[in-house]
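User: Um, what's this?
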Amino acid sequence: MNVVILQPSYIPWRGYFDQIRQANLFIFYDDIQYDKHGWRNRNQIKTAQGKQWITIPVHSKGVTNGIPIKDVRIDWSKPWAKKHLNTLTYAYAKTPFIRSFRPWLEAVYNRRDEFLADFIIDTTVELAGKLGITGTKFIRSSEIKNIEGQKTDRLIQILQHVGAQKYISGPSARDYIQQEKFDDAGITLEFMEYDYPEYPQLHPPYDPFVTILDLLFMVGDDVLPYFVNQKRYPSGH
């Protein structure tokens, strides 16, 4: 069984969804420390003026003191949902498929989740379905009990708990992951190498590192051909 463990993110980029596509089981790593300036509550879109951040405001209490992702609360005192909907609609008004996704976008931004993780995880699962990724099971790491340790040790305990034979990691983990511990546990370790074909974008220059919505609005449901150049390498490559 191929397993991926990633922190939940707000409308992630194509590579995130390709890891979902490669996995039999995808685990949202929601019980580790929230990273205040990461991708949990924000992402980038393309506009005529260049890339632009869209950010979900969260309550700051506890965020700087090691609060886990699953406990971060959305700040609904700000009208961010309406703003994000309007920003996306305006930025992508001239894309071929924005109208097809408008009802879904409205449903997303009509949600009123208390916790950030609920909003971004549910949205990610829905987007995976729209991308035609249907063979992956999803769980949250917080659902797995009695997991201890830190970093690589904790990952391996989770992987052993779910019966993983292979762990597919993002390439940046090469800098810190301890391969020998995977060898000792009998779990194959592979790293993604993101190499995707370009797709048409409204505003040059081309930039692949924006939210998946950019791709969906441009090409519609026929997105899987834009994943075909993706590569994975064994950890010893």
User: Anything to note?
Assistant: Residues 2-234 form one domain.
